[in-house]
Design brief:
With 170 residues, the chain is mainly alpha-helical. The chain is 74% helix and 5% strand. The chain is built from five helices and two strands; from the N terminus they run H-E-H-H-H-E-H. Strands 1-2 form a two-stranded parallel sheet.
Length: 170
Amino acid sequence: MIIKKYLLFILFFILLTFSKVWSNESIAFLDVNYIVKKSKPAISIINKIEKLKEQETKKLKKIEDELKKKNNEIIKSKNLLSEKELNDKIISLKKEARNFEQKKIKTINEINKKRATELNKFLQLIKPIIEEYMKENSISMIIDKKNLFMAKSNNDITKDILNLVNKKIK
């Protein structure tokens, strides 16, 4: 009796492990990073952010140069100033340097935040395009390529989506 139960259990286990799964579900993958790097709307967003970054970098560089000039002036007038005046100028310069560093960090964070916000807006714009493509091609699931281990290259819809994004978003 016990042997029959074990045989039945083993047979049941063997049947479960060797069964094939048949599905009509269509799955594709998409390289979102490629679309962000190569699509015309995303490129214009990135260029706009880069211009802003360059402008802010120029402003920060100008402030940094002024701080260096002040530092050099303090070093040159070191022997001419009294100890109290020298210490006051050094303390003042250190405060300005700290303020500059804080401003620099704040500016970098603002630029990164703006970049992330703009790219998220772009991704929200392409979402309806991807959904429409899914409906037209009877695709039930799209997976980001960076989260994919292995797949057939004919399941890659990146080029198709890129073409649609370039056509539909100006």
